[in-house]
């Protein structure tokens, strides 16, 4: 596997679109698998969990498959927009009607985590990896709720996560 670092435009105005980046919008991440380009984090994760079936995703026919898919799509369709809009201070009744608000996101996470240590109950999955990611990247956005703080810490303590962080640090 080859990891290629590219530049992207940043929220603060720094950075720029990298002409060598094959992502059609100049963003990251993008997976090039034998010439097939897959982008959007949830799509990449779903693609990989299907390409390499294993413990990170319930497979078709598993009773947890629906919940897993729901969390994967909820992240990109609801959670991420809510977090971004909240971070930049945009608030409007139409946004609440469509996506809800940050409090609703926190409530949804807490309701799931009251049922077990992971979003799927007793089983860690790619959904936990994806949904906890904003709190890993931007810890100051972490809700002040012990269920979420503990869950994010459990996600960050996993051996594969620690190893990846060490590789990224160089």
Overview of this structure, please?
The chain starts with 29 loop residues before the first strand and ends with a helix. A two-stranded antiparallel sheet has the order 1-2. It has helices at residues 41-51, 65-87, 93-98, 102-113, 126-137, 146-157, 159-169; strands spanning 30-33, 36-39. With 170 residues, the chain is mainly α. Helix 2 (65-87) runs parallel beside helix 5 and helix 5 crosses helix 6 (146-157).
Judged by helices, strands and strand pairing, the structural class is: mainly alpha
Radius of gyration, in angstroms, nearest whole number: 17 Å
Proportion of strand residues: under 5%
Largest sheet: 2 strands, antiparallel
SSE sequence, one letter per element = EEHHHHHHH
What would the average pLDDT be, to the nearest integer? 93
Poorly predicted residue ranges: none
Number of helices: 7
Percent helix, as a range, is: 40-55%
Please tell me what the overall shape is.
globular
Number of E-type strands:
2
| Lateral strand order in the biggest sheet | 1-2
- Distance between the ends: 17 Å
